[in-house]
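Journal club side-thread
Mid-discussion, someone asked how the predicted structure for our own chain would compare to the paper's figures. Pasting it here so we can look after the session.
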Amino acid sequence: MIVDAHLHVWQAVPNHPNPTVTTVSPVSDVPIGLLRDYMDEYGVDRAVLVQPLFPGEDNSYVADCARADSERFAAVCVVDPRKAGAEDRLEHWVSEYGCRGLRLRPGVPGEKEAFSHPNTYPLWERADALDVVVNVLCNADDVPAIAEMAERFPGVNILIDHMGHPDVAAGVDASPFQALLGLARHERVHVKPSGYTYCSHEAYPHKDCWNIFHALYDSFGPARLVWGSDFPHILLKTGYRRCLLLQERAYTYLSPSELRLIMGENAARLYWREFE
């Protein structure tokens, strides 16, 4: 089983004030049908639809797409933790629309301070009660706050986007990256080996990131690494197929069973409760 655990689909926002906010512009339509075409062509069985940055809390497109084919798709919604009643809005998207994850974004300007603020504890408590996966879009300086929340809410599965956006040039021994590795002590913290194009200074296959992956593998183990493509943005970077094959091509020390975990079984366990 192959599960793409990090990708985006959306309906175009023609008058978006910042059309270059993402690699593929929000003024372009990225329909679920296009994703299906790529999945069918390359043998990807399931996918996790992560709410993009720009639609805000209107999770209806990803939620409706996932609800229409829940065996193949799971949706990760966004609620703004800075606004009162965030926990009730989360329950709405989970109970009424079937969303299986929540995305919090301390790496986005304006949302950092709210991430671990006591006002957000009810949101985390509700996430725990609803058994949703908390996806975290973060930077290296957000790791202490993630550690605090992992300690306070040990029952919540936390999934860190894009390897935490490491400073590849600083290397694996840099204090911020070592702090990220330290999150491995929390058994429900997972990391996505995704988003290489955001941190690598080299073209595919991003050899300058190989030590980063190996350090994550050593600390978290293959059972807590969850692959994602970052579709559709990867189409304009390295292409979907090369992204899909990177782990197999670059990390030849991975056994077939470890590859199966990283490329699908871990995500199926988190979002579909299989392989538990």
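Post-session note: The first strand starts at residue 3 and ends at 7.
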